[in-house]
Specification:
Length: 151
């Protein structure tokens, strides 16, 4: 088993302690994570963020990503980024832990911050920018849905 495979299995095992990682796609067998992406850094943020991809590319119509974003350590973050240039909208649904979600309407705009915890949902659309950071010693797990509207 390669070091990467071992690390991926460890990540999946740790996240499985907090949430069920099963997927039941329509008319297909139940399954789990299809790919683990390690982002070090993610959009220029601090620390490491893991994306547990739950769907294969192109599996869902107009869907670019359906994944669990996992921040294991306090201070791990996905830095400010936009989806507007790709005509995307993105939802974050907090499954476990607590963090701080920040958004701004333009690259040097006024930053609005919000504490998020289990059950919180955020939505980003248009040319806005957003970021997310784990603010506690507890793992932060967020389900991410990114859609796009091909024009």
């Amino acid at each position: 088993m390669s070091e990467t495979t071992s690390e991926n299995n460890k990540i999946i095992e740790l996240v499985s302690q907090y949430i069920d990682l099963s997927v039941t796609p329509f008319n297909k067998p139940e399954r789990t994570v299809v790919k683990v992406d390690k982002r070090d850094p993610m959009y220029g943020g601090n620390g490491i963020v893991f994306l547990l991809q739950m769907f294969d590319e192109g599996e869902l119509t107009n869907n670019r990503i359906g994944a669990y974003m996992v921040f294991f350590n306090k201070g791990d973050e996905a830095g400010f980024h936009t989806h507007g240039t790709r005509n995307e909208e993105e939802l974050y649904i907090v499954m476990h832990g607590e963090g701080e979600y920040s958004e701004m309407t333009k690259k040097e705009g006024i930053i609005r911050k919000k504490t998020i915890k289990k059950g919180s949902i955020t939505a980003m659309s248009g040319e806005g920018f957003h970021s997310l950071i784990n603010t506690t010693d507890e793992v932060l797990i967020v389900f991410v849905i990114t859609t796009n509207n091909p024009k």
